[in-house]
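Regression test attached.
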Amino acid sequence: MIIDIACAVFNVLFTGLFVLGLAGLLTWVERKQSAVMQDRIGANRADLFGWDPKFLRPIRRLGLFHPIADGLKMILKEDHVPPNANKALFNLAPFVSIFFALIAFAAIPFSDRFVVGGHEAAIQVAPMNVGVLYIFAVLSMGIYGVFLAGYASKNNWAFLGGIRASALMLSAEIAIGVSIIGVIMTYGSLEIGEIVRAQQSSPDDLLLGFLPKWGIIMQPLGFIIFLAAGIAATKRIPFDMPEGESEIIGYFVEYSGMKFGMFMMTDFVETIVIAGLTAALFLGGWHIPYFYPEQATAAVVILQALVFILKVAFMCWFMILVRWTLPRFRYDQAMRFGWMALLPLALVNIVLTGIMKVLVSG
Amino acid sequence: MNSSPEHNKRDYGLWQRTYVPEVFGGLAITARHFFVNLKNHIRRLIGRKDAAPGAVTFQYPEQRRPLAPRLRSLHRLTKREDGSPRCVACMMCETICPARCIYIVATEHPDPNIEKMPEQFTIDLGRCVFCGYCVEACPEDAIRMDTGILEFASYTRENMIYTIDQLLSHETAKPDAQDTQ
């Protein structure tokens, strides 16, 4: 009993701190990675209120104080509510937005099951057997925060942003859901831990004798569709037309201070969720290729968690790479891309997966 | 030749219209920049002097861009050997100045071989357009714009007015501040 509670508390703290910490770090990664990609240096000036001792110089030169400065700025800024806005909904919207983004990671496992004090446990907040559906449900709920923000602001640009966000979310979520069906057909489960275990093929069951049965290898088309639709679901460039800062500024145009910060954090947290989902469904989750531990010792569990975090970090890097490479789609282009490219391809992927499954088993 | 809108439409092939391969091409370019620059940053960090710079940034104000030798920067008045201004208050610069920012008051020079010298020589930098006509018009090579000083912003209009003493105290730019090419 006590061990169960301890495990639950540890898992909640670990996952929560991981997601929030990584989201905070991603603001720094985004600055520095874009700078390095564009032959620049990036933010490197913030210090601790003018206190700049020599031993902190390397941290300052790396710009690691900038996330702290950002947070402080957001907290100290005026929190303005427009006079005509619907105050209750206006204040509720950022909380709705970030809440659904944060709880989505609960279904994603960091490690395989292991035994601690006679109890079976895993580094996973909620090992539910409909994990994939749960994540889609809460990710789709995230649209409420965005749309409420656009609606409650009583601002035409914000309203336009909210409408764009819901249209984009519709086309993206359907493509995600349909593209994932191929994965579910291949591995025969809706529980994410079970899908990862199915990718962890045994040494004599490798594809063509040397490839692990990861989702990216079994479902290459599904992977590309999922990644494209997942990037669209994060509402970041190239699918940032709900925001579109050069045309309509978007659903959070009336927000200031920490409430704006929460919308910004939502984008980063959604990036992490999509990265975690991609790592779990397509990159073998905690699985280390060609490494088959006899039993789950503490070292193995820590190694698995580290490998999974590494995969998530790589996917975050890749999504930021996409964000700083491609220009924004026009609204109609994004719609055409979602409905006329991603969705039909995802349907084709299902049919192909079914044919392959019959051919392989028969 | 033909600049009609129809002509400007690019004819994308099927490969480009599928979009995905081109996206990966773009990602490869940006990723290559990322890794090459990261490698150079790290090599510089561990003290490899021969490493190429990881960024094209000049860390202004600690690090300044080299100035072109012909750049027109803040004015200075040149001096004779005895330290008095070379200017003979001929009013050529004041006359040619399109912004009318130069104001000269002439006086007798103690040396009878020199006719006049400026008592006041004031340039209002708030009006100056840095055309360099004053330098070209001067028959005595008394005014030059080669100090290399670019930062003379001020909060008041009064501080933008430079008097003769300030203009005489400016030095020519050091050669290392200039672009050697």
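Expected vs. actual: identical. Chain A touches chain B at residues 33, 35-41, 224, 321-322, 324-326, 341 (CB under 8 Å).
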